[in-house]
Design a protein that fits this description.
The protein is an alpha/beta fold and 244 residues long. The protein has helices at residues 6-12, 35-38, 75-81, 83-89, 136-162, 174-195, 219-232; strands at residues 20-30, 49-56, 62-70, 99-100, 108-109, 112-114, 125-126. A hairpin with a 7-residue loop joins strand 4 (99-100) and strand 5. The chain is globular. Residues 26-189 form the DDE Tnp4 domain.
Length: 244
C-alpha cells in the first residue's frame, strides 16, 4: 500500500482527538513451526507468532503496516526496530508541519499517533498518563486517547473476522505468512472503501480509572501530552461527552 503523503495525513486527522494521524497498535498472528527452528517466534503468550504493526484511520482502514517481526519481540521493540518506527524517528514519514489546535492561535502542536502504554512517549506518539490519575485533565486525556486508540483494536477485530486465515495457526514459511498478512490488509482496505461500512461508536461510558503501567517518557512528549490535556479542558477543546 502506498505511503501517505502530507495531504493524506491532514485528511486523516480527526476532530475528537485533534492533530491525530491515527491509532498505532500491534497484533500477534499465529504461525505453526517447530520450537527447534522457531524459538524466536515464541511469544510471551506461549505460542508462535509474527507481529503485525499498523496505523489505522478513523474509518478503520490501514494507513501503514509493518509485518514480520518475531513473536518473541515485544510491541515496543518491534516498533522501534521496524521500518515504520525508524522512518518516524528519522522524520521520513512526510508528516504535516505542526499547527495550532482548533480554536487557538498558539502554540503550534505536532501531529501525533495515539497508542497504549507499550509504545514510547514522543512528540509524535501519545500514550496515556500512567497510573490511576486523580487530576481531571489527565483522566479526560486518557479517556479521549482511549477512544481514539480503540480504532486500531476494532480494525484488527474486523480483519480477523473477515479473513478466515486468522482463525487458526498459519502453517506456512514465514516469508509466505508475511505476504498473506499484507494481502489481507490490502483486501481489508479495498472492502472498507467499497462498502463504506459505518462502524457505530458505542463507547460513551464514564471516564475510566485505567491502571496503566508506569513508564516515563521523553520530556518533549510529556510537554505535548500536557498541552493536549490542558486543551481538552479549555472552552475550545472540550466536547460534551468527556465529562458524562
Amino acid at each position: 500500500m502506498p505511503p501517505p503523503d502530507e495531504n493524506t495525513w491532514i485528511n486523516i486527522a480527526e476532530d475528537n482527538f485533534p492533530n491525530c494521524l491515527g491509532a498505532l497498535g500491534g497484533k500477534h498472528i499465529r504461525v505453526t513451526m517447530s520450537f527447534k527452528n522457531g524459538s524466536k517466534y515464541f511469544n510471551y503468550k506461549k505460542y508462535f507468532s509474527v507481529v503485525l504493526l499498523a496505523t489505522v484511520d478513523a474509518n478503520y482502514c490501514f494507513t501503514i503496516i509493518d509485518v514480520g517481526s518475531y513473536g518473541s519481540t515485544g510491541d515496543a521493540s518491534a516498533f522501534r526496530n521496524s521500518a515504520m518506527g525508524c522512518r518516524l524517528s528519522e522524520g521520513a514519514l512526510r508528516l504535516p508541519l505542526p499547527k495550532p489546535l482548533p480554536g487557538t492561535a498558539a502554540p503550534s502542536m505536532p501531529y501525533v499517533f495515539v497508542g497504549d502504554d507499550v509504545f514510547g512517549l514522543a512528540e509524535n506518539i501519545m500514550r496515556p498518563y500512567p497510573g490511576s490519575q486523580r487530576a481531571i485533565e489527565k483522566r479526560v486525556f486518557n479517556y479521549r486517547l482511549s477512544r481514539a486508540r480503540r480504532m486500531v483494536e476494532c480494525t484488527f477485530g474486523i480483519l480477523s473476522n473477515k479473513c478466515c486465515v486468522f482463525h487458526t495457526s498459519i502453517q506456512l514459511e514465514p516469508d509466505f505468512v508475511d505476504i498473506i498478512i499484507k494481502a489481507c490488509c490490502v483486501l481489508h482496505n479495498f472492502v472498507r472503501l467499497r462498502d463504506r461500512y459505518n462502524y457505530q461508536d458505542t463507547l460513551t461510558d464514564d471516564i475510566p480509572d485505567i491502571d496503566w503501567a508506569t513508564v516515563r517518557g521523553p520530556t518533549g512528549g510529556m510537554r505535548v501530552r500536557d498541552q493536549f490535556a490542558n486543551y481538552f479542558m479549555s472552552p475550545d477543546g472540550v466536547i460534551p461527552w468527556q465529562l458524562n
